[in-house]
Amino acid sequence: RFLAGDAQAAGALEVIGIRKDFESFSALRDVHLRVNPGEMLCFLGPSGCGKTTLLRIIAGLETQTAGQILQNGKDVSWLPPDQRDYGIVFQSYALFPNLTIADNIAYGLVNGKVRKAEIKTRVEELLKLVGLPTSGAKYPSQLSGGQQQRVALARALATRPGLLLLDEPLSALDALERIRLRGEIRRLQRQVGITTIMVTHDQEEALSMADRIVVMNHGVIEQVGTPMDIYERPATPFVADFVGKVNVLQGYALGGNLFRVGDMDLQCDACDSGFEPGEAVNLYLRPEDRMVENLAHDTPNRLRVLVTKVEFLGGLCIAEVTADALHGQSMGLHFSLNQLHDLDIREGNRIDIALRANRIRAFCSRTA
Ligand code: ATP
């Protein structure tokens, strides 16, 4: 556990009431956030939501209009970047092309007046840590993009910072390398135990890497939660829509846990029962939240649907279905390839399904 002691001792970060105005435009509005020691937090959101601006304010690369940043209880809000305790990795690897890999990694240590022998040992350890033990004498141009990003990671960790900031570190890599490095960064982050914030617009990246995800939209935080929380219990229509795929059915509340969609009364056990009867709602349902096997006559939310399209994606297939009972509103549902064959799910066929009552979420359609 190479850096664990130092890194875990430092860590927690608090973002208090951060606002950022660019002239009349507010990129961040009263953002509050607490980062736990040792956790991997992802800022996730669409382009322009303010995630990079927030990371840059934490790094001191951008000045906040209002609010505070505390690191380990210490107010760092007005410290210049070089007096804050973090390492950072950017999308473009930003290595020095004329320095060897070893010298790139040692860069922050040389300036920090660490002894030569100690630097050499540390660089060797870091090269091993990022899986490049024999590349120290090479130059950046001799490495692949993924390898260069590993070097950038090693460089960011070299000074044993209390915080690691990653700004879309995988965006410039090809799909395969991205997935490989995703796992590598996660392993390394756990091994080192360093508090980490990563910016990404890629929900799969956030779901697979984060301990907690901060979903942002239009300069505000919509939800903070574990990947499972965010996916299974989205707090807002935006989160339900942005993270994962979702079907939206329009209807209205009947009272209690019942909602009318078209001619159907849908039972919705996960929904807030605080809707006024007659209130317009949007019901959100994930494509996998349907049952097709062992349906009893009285299974709730059972309906006959017409398959209008089947998209074959390998083991997982997506069937587009409509139902007269839903007044023609369509849904995309996931089926395994085996189910596709066993239940003869193909275009033009009708099948019986049931929408999972404990998975449907309702949001008032005025806020949706
Ligand atoms: P992306 O993934 O596209 O970078 P983001 O969520 O990281 O998106 P930011 O880069 O933080 O978004 O930008 C948030 C908003 O602030 C955007 O609308 C952007 O146009 C605006 N913005 C960012 N920097 C400046 C600037 N220097 N001057 C004016 N507006 C800016």
TrEMBL record:
Residues 13-243 form the ABC transporter domain. GO terms for molecular function: ATP binding. Keywords: ATP-binding, Cell inner membrane, Cell membrane, Membrane, Nucleotide-binding, Translocase, Transport. InterPro entries: AAA+_ATPase, ABC_SmlMolc_Importer, ABC_transporter-like_ATP-bd, ABC_transporter-like_CS, AminoethylPonate_ABC_PhnT2, Mo/tungstate-bd_C_term_dom, P-loop_NTPase. This is 2-aminoethylphosphonate ABC transporter ATP-binding protein. It comes from Variovorax humicola.
